[in-house]
Specification:
alpha/beta; Rossmann fold; 9-stranded mixed beta sheet; about 35% helix
Length: about 220
Amino acid sequence: MKVIVIGANGKTATRVVELLKASDTHEPLAMIRNLDHRPKFDAIGVATVLADLEYPIDHAINGCDAVIFAAGSGSKTGKDKTVLVDHIGAIRSMVAAQVQGATRYIMLSSINVDENSSYFGHYLKAKALADRHLMETDLDWTIICPGDLRDDDGNGLVSVSQETHMEGVLGALDRPVAELITTRDNLASALVACLDLNNTIGKRFSLLEGETPMSEALGAF
């Protein structure tokens, strides 16, 4: 399966590309918006395509079987860029996938997305609107909602739930909000694993650090 990774230069997405490269069944294509990012992927033998979510990206998705959307406007950008990338750009990628025949679509979202969010509002609202659009398409979609992302080494042990709203003193998984975390390693592994797990199609779920082996947790749907 040829898989385009949108936002490939990001911390989580780079991990995704590396996992796909190591796979026997998938061929990664790293979508970058800056030519300065190309040498990193050249060094590991991964093809790149230059494209920007603020403009049409059909040329990038053409010939791909699946999309992993792991892009983000970044914490240092304002509301306008968040809307352009996390909302409109995400929808643009979905439309391109439909037009170009990339039927499998994996979305990296977040816990507590809310179209009426007042906390970190513009980001959570943009992600919520993108998620809703995806769920209304005919794509074979999966939406993964991690907690606070950490760079610690992943151990492959997670907690998965179809409950994705966990604000308050205790979250839906009986954990203090401070513990609603996800390692980037575990998140990248889940994004890649879902490509081959048809039981995750049409599912939206949270992914947090936990005590269950990932294959078991993702296979429980």
